[in-house]
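Reopening this ticket.

The earlier resolution said the output was attached, but the attachment link was broken on my side. Pasting everything inline this time so it's all in one place.
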Amino acid sequence: MNIKSFLQCLSVGVLMLCFGSISAQSQTYYVQAGATGSQNGSDWNNAYTSLPTTLVRGATYYVGSGSYPSYAFKTPDSGTSWITVKKATATDHGTSAGWQTSYSNQAVFGGLNIGPDTGEDYFIFDGQTGGGPGSWTSGYGFKIAAGPNWTGPTIGIGNSGASYKPEGNIVVRHVDVQGNNPGGAGGNTYNSTQQGVTCYWGSYNCTFSYVYIHDQCGNPFQPLGTHDFVFEYMYIGPWWPENGDHTEWCYAHTDISDATPVTNVTVRFSILGNIPGAAVTGGLIMTVNNLYIYGNVFYNPLGNQWPYCTGGLIGNQARGFGTQNAYIYNNTFINTLGNNGSAPGYTANCVDKGIVFGFQVDGGLNINIFNNLYYLSVGLSYGNVANHDYNENVNLQNQLSSLGSITEPNGATNSVNPFVDYANYNFSPVSNTPPGMNLGPPYNVDMFGNTRTTWTRGAIEYVGGGVVNGNPSLQVTPGSLALGTILSGGSKTGSFTVKNVGGGTLSGTASVGSPFSIVSGGSYNLSSNQSQTVTMAFNPTSAGSYSQSVTLTGGGGASVGLTGSATNPPVNPSIQVMPGSIAFGTVLSGGSQTGGLTVKNVGGGTLSGTASVGSPFSIVSGGSYNLSSNQSQTVTMAFNPTSAGSYSQSVTLTGGGGASVGLTGSATNAPNSGGTVITNIIQGPTIAATSGILSGLLTASTVINGVLTSYFYQPLPSIGSTSGGSATYNVTITNAGNYEIQALVYTPNLSANSFLVNIDGQPQNPTMIWDIIPVTSGFEQRIVSWRGNGSAGNDQFAPKLFSLGAGSHQIIFEGLEPGTAMASFALLQIVTTIQSPSPPVAPNGLRIISSSP
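Inline output:
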């Protein structure tokens, strides 16, 4: 496995491990400071006044506004059942019974200790709002504010004692973490043990997202002897480190006995800086195996002390392990005024130290520093790191010879402020840099969600449409195409995009060996930022597995791997019918609705047969067929109900092994005054498939309709609902009614085309299987159905209509077959009304000429 594939798998793995299964029948409780009533947590009228000491596994606790004491999460595990504590908001607060608008204001806790004893895992603490670009320091639903005599971490995970009591599977997001030294005023307990977030010995699988850490004396975040941690969308500062002790942003090192290194740590999409106090040690001391630091901004307002020394701004501590496999990509460093002995106001105890990447040898290897941007920095040194390139230096100061050479084969220098308004934290580039290295996912997205197409150096991708100076550079997406399995003698096409992400004109050609061929776009002349589609075809003449590479010339060149396989068609005719079921909806009795299906001979010889169906359905056309191999024909049916009711029949198709297609429909009687039945479909918000609580599923990303989109897929063999992966989503319905589920899915073949689906209950196999027929070509939108008493490809309930009341609901998808994938879904409310006819309009100018006596 190459290193890019490894990083992609690692990123997916860490995120997947942070979520497990959740109880299908989750309970909901309510907490509101100062609440009256019975205080049993049943609704807002009877809310708990604080979080109970022991929580219910599988439950969700909504927390209203106000002040709460510090909380220690001590609920023992129950399998992999999660507990969710979330801030109540105007749009997500569970029941409306007793709800008041003021309850949506911030909730403040005096501290948070997660799992002081062993076996208190699977915990989500979610403030729901605040943080990230546009609101780095505001809008947080939860705040943890350490008291004046608080001496430990504001948020602690695990146990700090000599006895290991690790905790895992912890998610903390949208939280303001305030230390006990606001504004650096002093007067409170003031020592380096008062950290922001500390994860003690052996803790694992934890994610911290949208967290604002400030006004601490000690380390803002500190993973000790832990593994699989993600820190993202964090803002650190202001921060008042104590002089003379470890006061780095992050101090990650081995366990308490120096026996186990920290492994798999990601720091991304964050702003780190604003350190007004004095400090003497490094910025990020990361004695870590598998370290990923990308998409961050390291910014210290001009005149503030920058805390690094022998450990470097980013480096490691010599503890017998060193740092191995570090990837420091696409970060921005601003105003890093190092202690090089010449900057006024700085001590000289770190003479000749600039932006030091201080990775000591001590077992360290494979340190990679690419695509970073340095601005107004005093000195730059890469220390012992040899593998660095594509970095850009803007207005470097006092670059002393003792710092060593920083020359790179593809490095760049500049003298112009590259940012829109960095003093006010707008770090977007005003123009593009020369293209950096294409590092692939997960590094191909910046903190705003912009896909890196030109690989702007620094944290934020340039999206202003400017032209990059320099030579043409070729970018190809995607990097490989799998064309699946087709019949020999058949054909299937695929495409990819070539783009000039450099300057000048990119001229070149695309070529590939048999049985693949270039159909269109095989030559290109592209100006800067211009792109073109190249279409190729797979034309196998015999059964087998095939692979080739498309070779693309110009701009440094590239290649696209192609795979495909072919099978020989059966000698005898074989019938294939699509779709497997048809829902005609609701019509007026006496009315008519038509629908069609396609019958195809996927075998050899000639497929001869007929289609027939019982009343009130009928065959309109295409009821008999004689089809050669790969030939198809449309069969059209009509639904003609003569009275109100619900109807179902099956179309029987003969020949080639036979097949059937389920038909459903319903009819209503027209009102006495006449009228028209109108069905409206109201689509709810689209929900990303990877945003749920995932267990046993893998995630990946691909381009769908021009947008890089994440999806999950089932990696396991077809072993049923008890062992397949699951995805769980908690949603709130405003309007009671009938709903369908529409999902963006990928089903590559008939052996990978089903999920189990249900709302507010565990899906049951086989009645709640969703057979997705026909299979898709890429990702397509499909409506959920249920097999019921039907069969594979002939679901009884197509579509499946869910009757939902207003309030909270839980949607559960379970995997059945490997390779079946889902990118997103939405609830569709089905509203049927009868529109009364308008009364007749009186004629204008009517006069009585005469009347009979």
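Reporter confirms the inline version is readable. The first strand starts at residue 28 and ends at 31. Helices lie at 3-17.
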